Amino acid sequence: MNTIINRIFFGIVIVFAVQNANTQNLLDAYRYSFQNPSGTARYNGVSGAMNAIGADISLGSHNPAGIAAFWKSELAVSGDISLLNSESSLLEAGNTNSTSGYGNSLNNAGIVFTSYTPNKNWMSKSFAISFNKMADYTDEIYYQGKSLGSISERWAALGTGLYPDELDDFEAGPAYDAGVIFDNEGDAIYEYDYFRNEDKRLSRNQVIDQTGKWNELAITFGGNYNNKLLLGATIGIDFISFEIDKAYTESDLEDQNVPQFNELKYRELLTSSGIGVNAKLGALLKITESIRWSASLSSPTSLSMRENFRSLINYEWVNNDGSIGNGAWDTEENQFEYSFVNPWKVSTGFGYILGKNGFIDAEIDYVGYNFSKFKFSDGVASDIEYENFLNQEIDSRFENAINFRIGGEYVLSSFRLRAGYQILGSPIASYDDMSGFSLGLGYRGENWFLDLAYVNRGQMVTYQPYELLDAVVPTVDIDKRISNIGLTIGFKI
Fold it and tell me: For the chain, how many structural domains are there in total?
C-alpha cells in the first residue's frame, strides 16, 4: 500500500503539465540564459576583460561604449576550432567514460566606421555592425554502468490517476503503447516489470550528442566626448539554433535479475531555433590618463522559440511462457512555439593603462537569472498552468550570479602578449560555475593586424537522465573541458 501511495504522490508532484505535451523545462531556461561568449582573438586572449579598454569590435555585444574608442575605421573576421572532452561517471557504477570531439565556427565578424573630428567636443563618432558568438552548445557525452532505478518508474508515476486515453503524448502515453507500463486492474495505477525489483541493478548507458550556437548581430553607435567620456548603445538581434539527440538504454540481458524485463530503449530528438532582440547601453570614463572605469547594462532578450520534438520507445520483455515480446512507439515529430525572456545583466570594471606597454583590466557582471520567464501564447488553461509552474520553478531554483574577468596585454614593439582568467557564475546547483584561462599573441602592422588566442574552460555538471521524486534515479557526474584556438585577421580602412 505504501508503494502505491508513493506512486500516486509522484504523479501529483512531478509533472502535471506533461499531460499536455509541453516539453519545456529548467534546462531550456538554463540553455537560453547562460552565455559563454567568444569574440575576436584579442578579446578571447584576455578572457573578455576589455570593457574598460575599448577599441575591440566584440564589445558591441558587451559594452558598446568600447566602440567609441576607435580612431579609424576597421574590419575584422575571427574563427576558431573547438576541442571537446568530457569525463562522465555513473556514481553507483564507479566507472568513468571519456568522450572527445571537435567543432569549428565563426566567432566574430564586423566592421566599424569612424569619423574623427579632433577640433570638436565629440571628437569621434562610430557606427559598427558586428556578429558575435554568445554561446556554443556543441557537446558529446557517453556513460555506462550498472545502477538502481528505471525510467519505467517515472512513466508509471506520470500515468497515475489517468486512464490510457488520457496519458500524455510524449512519455507515459508512448510507454503504455510500447508495453513498458500497463494497467492490469483498470484502476489508473500502472504496473511495470521493474515493480518490486527496485533493489536490482540494471545495466544502462546513454549517448548525448548536441550541437548549436547562440549568435548576436550587434548594431552599435558610439561617441567620444573630449577623449574623457565614451558612450555607446547597441541593438542586439539574437539567433539561437540547437539540436540534441539523446539515446538512453536500460538492460537486464546480462544478469537476468529482473523477471520479464529484457531491454528498454528511449530516444529523444529535439531541434529548436529562435530569434530575439535586446538593447545595451554602455559608458567608459577616463578618470586619469591611466585609470579607466566602465559600466554597461544589457536588457533581457525577448526570444521567440520554435521546437520540434520527437521520442521513440522500444521495449523487449519475457512472457510467462518464456517467449520474447516486443513493443515500440514513435510519437513522430511535433512542433511547439513559445516565448522566453532571458536575464538582464549589469557590468562594471576598471582598466589600467601601462603607458605604451599595455593594459590590465578587471570587471564583474551581475546577472539576474531569476528574471527569466516562459510565455506560452495559445491561451489554453493547462498551458497557462504549466507556464506558471515553470516560472515558479525558475523563481525558486534559479539564483542570480556573478561573472568575473581579469586580463591584460603587454606590448613588445609590434607584438602583443595576452593572458586572462574568468569565472562565469551558474544559476542552478546542478551546474557548477564555468571557469578557465586564456593566452594570446598578436601582431600590429601599420594597416593590418593578426591575433591568435587559446582559451581553456571547464565545468562540472550533475546530470540525471530523468526526474522522479522519492526514488532512486541514476546520477552522473560530468567533467567538461573545452579548448578553443582562435584566429583574427583585421584591417584598418
Answer: 1
CB 409 within 8 A of CB 358: yes
Three-state DSSP state, 456: strand
* Domain containing residue 40: 2-492
Contacts of 109-113 with CB under 8 Å at 24 or more apart are 109/76, 109/77, 109/78, 110/57, 110/60, 110/75, 110/76, 110/218, 111/57, 111/73, 111/74, 111/75, 111/76, 112/57, 112/67, 112/70, 112/73, 112/74, 112/75, 113/73
- Which residues make Cβ contacts (< 8 Å) with residue 30, sequence separation at least 6? 427, 428, 431
* Per-residue pLDDT in tens (0 to 9) along the chain, 493 residues: 334 334 433 333 343 333 334 456 889 999 999 999 999 999 999 999 999 999 999 999 999 999 999 999 999 999 999 999 999 999 989 899 999 988 888 999 999 999 999 889 999 999 999 999 999 999 999 999 999 999 999 999 999 999 999 999 889 999 999 999 999 999 999 999 999 999 999 999 999 999 999 999 999 999 999 999 999 999 999 999 999 999 999 999 988 999 999 999 999 999 999 999 999 999 999 999 999 999 999 999 999 999 999 999 999 999 989 999 999 999 999 999 999 999 999 999 999 999 999 999 999 999 999 999 999 876 677 778 889 999 999 999 999 999 999 999 999 999 999 999 999 999 999 999 999 999 999 999 999 999 999 999 999 999 999 999 888 999 999 999 999 999 999 999 9
Q: Coil, strand, or helix at residue 397?
A: helix
What pTM value is reported for the model? 0.91
Least Cα distance to 132 among 67, 86, 85, 83 occurs for: 67
Q: Assess contact for 44 and 438: CB atoms under 8 A.
A: yes
Pairing, β 358-367 against β 401-412: antiparallel
In this structure, what CATH number is given to the domain that contains residue 123?
2.40.160.60
Helix axes 2-13, 151-159, angle to 10 degrees: 80
